[in-house]
């Protein structure tokens, strides 16, 4: 790559009002841009202190650029770039936990937002409860002043604010989990209760945890993306993000003293109850995304766009939506489900977005319940079909077995990867592999795992996958 100079800040730096935990690509492509739009149109001290809970990558990339970066919106025919300057500081929590707690305890901070992914909540996906035996939680209970988990930092900072007589901040979860605000409250209050029940009560009553539905397809940035941007802009920006033009943010309007950026300037919708929007998005979008990730990967497709360019996969998604997903979603006000799903297929077909099936396949044990299993449970209760969903789940089972259809190893990234691989390997035939995986109660609650219709559907889908391969199995179900 030619020697281009680094991107530098040309806009003024806003004063901090938000601490954000988890400044990965999605946050930079989403919450940060909404916040910039809000400041541009309504002003306000809403600069963002970005905090990485694990790696130093964000700081190493953003630090030399004074927090600014480029967002590249990739439409099917053409792109649009914008420089984002709302990040005013970047901290790496393990390097200096005190600095993070101090930043969060500063009364100027009115919101702590989160994009920490499902596993960052340290919860049991099948029950929605904090895992008290999770290593980070065990650590945070023993050393509350030197936390590791997001919940640990929130509890430590809220404890300080309470002790100094300051107002709490609003905790704003922006992860793809149903009732994400309720889950955030559950884990934070449970952790606080382990040390101090008065603090836990104060958090439970005084801290708002609004739920949100977030949506923008944002693949991980690659070196090729950085090079392409440098070739057109003549500056180097390793912190750049690529995303689709579409974005949707639905937020429960529940903030401490109603203090928040005017995110509606960028089109955010404020509603009293966000649950229907979340269920629609998680089941319609993330459900088919995961289905395409496992089945597409097994069929040899590298990206979502490549998968749905195959008409068998596009038809499979359409059938899933029409027959199995839409009937299990109640339509939120202002949406039309068939139109919403037709638009999803167009979004997936955007070939400028190289969203890897392998990336979406990550952390399936944390994603399956809210993306696929809830829909299955509702369909079973209403005697509706589950064949397509069963094929998606069987695809996940094949994938986590760790060997692809040509005998190559799959790099399975999942907090339960070892458990899943062992469960699969311990089964000597397809049905015992499926049975072993269904026994993993962190993923499958017993009602669903013991349901004979479900068991039979997943077993026959798994056999179909083994016999025909993913592409033909998808085609067979799509054509039925
Ligand atoms: C994807 C999501 O990686 C994944 O699991 O399904 O990140 C998806 O792209 C976003 O939720 C879209 O809003």
TrEMBL record:
**What domain of life?**
Bacteria
- The residue ranges of the Mannitol dehydrogenase C-terminal domain are 273-465
For the keyword NAD, the answer is yes
Q: Which PANTHER family match?
A: MANNITOL DEHYDROGENASE 2-RELATED, MANNITOL DEHYDROGENASE DSF1-RELATED
Keyword terms, alphabetized: NAD, Oxidoreductase
User: Which GO terms are recorded in the biological process aspect for this UniProt protein?
Assistant: mannitol metabolic process
Q: Where is the Mannitol dehydrogenase N-terminal domain?
A: 17-264
Cross-referenced Pfam families: Mannitol_dh, Mannitol_dh_C
Q: Which InterPro entries match?
A: 6-PGluconate_DH-like_C_sf (IPR008927), 6PGD_dom2 (IPR013328), Mannitol_DH (IPR000669), Mannitol_DH/Oxidoreductase (IPR050988), Mannitol_DH_C (IPR013118), Mannitol_DH_CS (IPR023027), Mannitol_DH_N (IPR013131), NAD(P)-bd_dom_sf (IPR036291)
Protein name as it appears in the record: Fructuronate reductase
Q: Name one GO molecular function term.
A: oxidoreductase activity, acting on the CH-OH group of donors, NAD or NADP as acceptor
* Signal sequence interval, chain numbering: none
